[in-house]
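Q: Hi! First time doing this. I have a protein sequence and I read that you can turn it into a structure. Is that right? Here it is:
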Amino acid sequence: MQIIEVYKSLQGESSHAGLPCIFVRLAGCNLRCSWCDSEYTFKGGVRMALDEVEREVHRLSPNGGLVEFTGGEPLLHEREVVPLMERLIAAGYKILLETSGERPLERVPKQVVKIVDVKCPDSNEGDSFRMSNLEHLTLQDEVKFVISSRRDYEFARDFTREHALERKAFTVIFSPAFRKDAVGTRDASNCLVDPQELAEWMLADEVNARLGLQVHKFIWEPQVKGV
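A: Yes, that's right. Below is the predicted 3D structure, encoded as structure tokens:
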């Protein structure tokens, strides 16, 4: 596996935000979202065997806990990631998978909590979502829309309603995109859509979704890696 980093921090997104978590960040992505904050994962990293990654997870969190596979796009490494997730599940860890929604989900172990993006139009990857993945969501999974404009919001609102996502997944998250060049300040001025404005849109339209903020970017400076 080509690994960018394995580290311990607080989960910054999803319904698990605020919990301690081990992150396994894999290299490579086949999408190029306009607001991407992890372009450093597109190449580089180090080769690690499954046993090495598993040992590092155990070292960082020897008594179980939360582990997230992220990237990049972790399912580009499906051949290695799936058996590693199965090993960690057997060892008592709870596994999260952060994925773009473009890669097929059917081979992901059923115990894994899938956090699945649906890319909005202004991401420049708006047609990338694999619609068959809707059939592989479960009531423990989460669907996320990263929103950078009113157009993105309306797309997310309409997609959520059209596909009754609240009946297919545990939760639907509308998350304002951060500027990828954000530095220094740890506040909402770095969001491409003001969270207050997004909240007001959601309330006005009675959207069955939760507002999600990237908590780690309010705790640490937004350009800091490994947090």
